[in-house]
Design goal:
Strand content: 15-25%
Number of helices: 24
Number of strands: 24
Radius of gyration: 35 Å
Distance between the termini: 31 Å
Largest sheet: 7 strands, mixed
Length: 853
């Protein structure tokens, strides 16, 4: 009888799915989103890889062979190039070499990369956009970056500084800019100039090539001709590789950074998938609760709990496979639309090569496995239904506040999370601690956070009612709809917890990322203020001082801004040499602020000092303590006004008011003058450089160098940090999306389940608008509960992550952004209940006396 019973139970479940496809949609929607997210990541990786390879490959497609000197060999000379060109089967060969040179004619350093390229033909890696490509000596083409940075155009002249032929000093080589080019397959970093190989050899004073690109003749490059072998014979010791091999290596290098980002995104995708499983589990539980009478009838006619559970698991697997297939197809279709849509907005993206069948099949099967995991616990619970339930109406889920075992498990997880967090807090590094293992510490924080989230899952039903009681006080005063909404959510704490915990996960991760980003951005601004405080840094040629009128003369130029003069002097602290400066820490580059670890960096009072982090840690001082410095044999006692979280600008250890430094005996003339370009652009910096050059007319007035390159590096790191964080936040937003889907699904199912309740409320005089408002507020409360729990969990862990990642970083809480995330989440979850609320508002009062289905 096993076969017929199995067929009866499975047939009943299949018939239920066909009869109520809406329930299939409800249980499958979160799984569909999970499949869409996972396969969307695969498609995104295809698009990014294809785009990066197409845009940044370094070897043209026409290159068949690449010839380079062997290990330890010298560059290939003109004789070797001629021999390669004369090899049977070789249609074309060009020599390549790279170099660079500083530019003369400025008080600040400017540099131009140099690269050999034929300029035309299949082996060229550049495309001419303006002027002409250089064909004779003394001419150079520059790329668009160099033209923009150095204000160049066809006809402009450049003076390159090259080593003298005798190896001593430099020689000046003046070249004319003949044209502007745009790189098509080159990966040069920074402003670059191009010329044919022989012309560039003359400029650089070299006689060889670091690489020869070869294009073979397909008609004569058969295996018998073997151009590669003949080239090895013609140029003994040379390394000959195929162009495809070199392009593959370049592609791997080009997408290395993108792969790092995608690997990080993959980690967070796991979080989104986990959220989808939680939502699916909750949805299956609600659906099975709604079908309790049908399941009880199957028990009554002889179905065993094992058969019933197996049938429910099979049903879940079918839902998962169908949802996975739909999600994969949707993601692949969106991937095909992304490049043309991006092209309309000016972004050139390459289309994916095709559907990766292996990944597609794995995604569908994985979604089926996720569905089985999600349905397992609800199916085991539902299969134990008593046959007597067939005589009763469908039970509403009134989830208890949690059993003893679940509560104990939650408390154990919470205790483990607290213990791990305390261990990481107790072992936080001190300034200057170079042996601190941050990776291990961050791993401990992640494990602690995972345990804390498991505790939240286990204790969620217990936490819902007290949190709800705290946040719902205003709602109880808004009328019957508000009070009924609070009662509806609080009456089913298990259901509220299952949805709110997923919302809390998204809020926790997004909020933590925003907080860590704000803190690390504050630290990056501090680093920029320390490492690159100004565009220009003027100092004496020899140890001494600058002209006292230099700062005033520079400030008179409208091209310059923020001109600051200050002094540094050497002092002794506890037999150690230290640097004392009267730099006004509030006058550092505008928009790049310093922050204090203790105290305040406001205007320094006389006899006060600001101490950098290393010396503050070594001396064990903080704001309000006293330190003693020895200057030219005289002790000077100072009160600590503030301590810095890291190093001080320009290598300063102690910062005092100017009057105090003069009182200590320092020369009144400045030792350093800094200035910024008035206009923050390449053209503005060029004009500022000319203003400085015009001002520095005498050798006694000092030297200058640009620090904008360092500032750009720091700014680039900040941009990378923001790009990475934005990518992570977008992916984490998928977790929130899954949570919102869970809210909508839960609301839809509960509306069906509570039809008699809504009918009774309508019969008692509650209007349709009030019912609509009640259901909407219930959905909003899921967002409120999730937001409160997520922020309560995320903010402390954000603080710990910041302290572990960079002990010098100030903790910055982006209250405005977190408030915006919280508000948006509440509005979105409320909007997720719009359709279920509309359905509930249309419930007829007669349902109150009708027999529940």
């Amino acid at each position: 009888m096993r076969g017929p019973w199995r067929a009866t139970v499975l047939g009943s479940q299949v018939a239920e799915l066909l009869r109520r496809p809406g329930r299939f949609a409800a249980t499958g929607l979160s799984l569909l989103i999970a499949a869409f997210v996972v396969f969307g990541a695969v498609t995104a990786q295809q698009i990014i890889t294809a785009t990066v390879v197409d845009r940044f490959r370094g070897t043209p497609e026409a290159v068949s062979l690449v010839v380079t000197p062997g290990d330890g060999g010298e560059d290939i000379g003109e004789a070797g190039l001629r021999a390669i060109r004369g090899t049977p089967g070789v249609a074309e060969a060009v020599g390549r070499l790279d170099g660079g040179a500083p530019l003369d004619g400025s008080a600040v350093e400017r540099y131009l990369e140099l690269s050999a390229d034929p300029g035309t033909g299949a082996l060229s890696g550049v495309r001419l956009t303006e002027g002409a490509y250089p064909s004779g000596p003394g001419r150079l083409a520059v790329d668009t970056e160099a033209a923009r940075a150095y204000d160049l155009a066809p006809g402009s002249s450049l003076t390159l500084l090259q080593p003298a032929s005798d190896g001593e000093g430099t020689r000046r080589v003046t070249v004319e800019v003949s044209g502007i080019v745009r790189g098509t397959t080159t990966t040069a970093a920074g402003p670059t100039g191009y010329a044919p190989g022989p012309r560039l050899q003359e400029l650089l004073g070299v006689s060889g090539y670091s690489r020869i690109d070869v294009r073979t003749d397909p008609a004569s490059s058969s295996a018998s001709a073997d151009p590669a072998g003949r080239i090895r014979q013609a140029v003994p010791g040379a390394l000959v590789r195929s162009g495809d091999e070199v392009r593959e290596e370049e592609a791997d290098a080009a997408v290395a950074d993108a792969k790092d980002i995608l690997e990080l995104v993959t980690v967070f995708l796991g979080v989104a998938v986990g959220a989808a499983v939680l939502v699916a589990t909750s949805t299956f539980r609600i659906v099975f609760t709604r079908r309790v009478r049908q399941l009880a009838l199957l028990r009554a006619i002889g179905a065993t709990p094992r058969r019933l559970a197996a049938a429910l698991v099979v049903e879940g697997a079918v839902v998962g496979l169908l949802a996975g297939a739909a999600g994969v197809l949707a993601a692949w279709g969106c991937g095909q639309l992304v490049p043309p849509v991006a092209g309309r907005f000016g972004h050139d993206l390459s289309a994916p090569s095709g559907m990766p069948l292996t990944e597609a099949v794995l995604t569908v099967l994985g979604t089926g496995v996720l569905a089985v995991l999600a349905v397992l616990a609800p199916s085991l619970s539902a299969s134990r239904v008593s046959p007597l339930q067939a005589l009763r109406s469908a039970a509403s889920e009134q989830g208890a506040a949690g059993g003893t075992v679940r509560t104990l498990l939650g408390l154990l997880c919470a205790a483990g999370a607290a213990l791990l967090a305390w261990q990481q807090y107790d072992g936080l590094p001190q300034p200057g601690d170079a042996e601190y293992d941050r990776f291990t510490a961050l791993t401990g924080v992640v494990l602690s956070g995972a345990l804390a989230f498991l505790a939240l899952i286990a204790l969620g039903p217990v936490l819902v009612r007290p949190v709800l009681a705290a946040v719902a006080v205003p709602l109880r005063r808004t009328g019957a709809a508000g009070r009924l909404a609070v009662a509806g959510v609080g009456g089913a704490p298990g259901r509220a917890a299952s949805v709110s915990v997923v919302v809390a996960l998204g809020v926790c991760l997004v909020g933590s990322t925003l907080t860590c980003l704000a803190s690390l951005n504050a630290y990056e601004r501090y680093r920029q203020a320390v490492e690159s405080p100004a565009d220009f840094h003027l100092y004496p040629r020899d140890a001494g001082t600058l002209d006292r009128s230099l700062a005033a003369d520079l400030a008179a130029h409208p091209e310059l801004a923020g001109v600051t003069a200050f002094r540094t002097a050497e002092a002794v602290e506890d037999s150690r040499g230290v640097t004392v400066s009267d730099l006004d820490l509030g006058a550092v580059r505008s928009g790049v602020g310093l922050s204090a670890r203790t105290g305040s960096l406001g205007r320094l009072a006389p006899a006060h000092v600001v101490v950098d982090a290393d010396h503050a840690h070594r001396l064990g001082v903080r704001a309000g303590d006293r330190v003693t410095l020895e200057f030219e044999g005289r002790p000077v006692r100072l009160t600590v006004a503030a301590t810095l979280p890291g190093a001080g600008p320009y290598g300063g250890n102690f910062f005092v008011p100017a009057a105090d430094l003069t009182r200590m005996g320092a020369d009144p003339a400045p030792t350093t003058v800094t200035a910024d370009a008035a206009e923050d652009s390449a053209e503005g910096r060029i004009r500022a450089q000319r203003a400085i050059t015009d001002t520095l007319t005498g050798p006694e007035r000092g030297d200058g160098r640009v620090i904008a390159e360092d500032s750009g590096a720091v700014a680039g790191q900040s941009d990378d940090l923001r790009t990475m964080a934005t990518t992570v936040i977008m992916v984490l937003g998928l977790t929130v999306l899954v949570a919102v889907v869970g809210v909508a699904t839960t609301a839809s199912l509960t509306v069906v389940e509570r039809k008699r309740e809504f009918g009774l409320l309508r019969a008692l005089g509650l209007g349709g608008a009030a019912v609509h408002r009640m259901v909407t507020v219930e959905c909003a409360l899921y967002g409120v509960l999730g937001g409160v729990l997520g922020l309560a969990l995320g903010v402390p862990y954000s603080w710990l992550v910041v302290r572990v990642a960079e002990t010098s970083a100030p903790f910055s809480l982006p209250a405005g952004e977190l408030a915006a995330v919280f508000t948006t989440l509440v509005l979105v979850t409320a909007a997720a209940g719009t359709l279920p609320a509309l359905r509930a508002s249309r419930t007829s009062p007669t349902v109150a006396v009708a027999q529940a289905e």
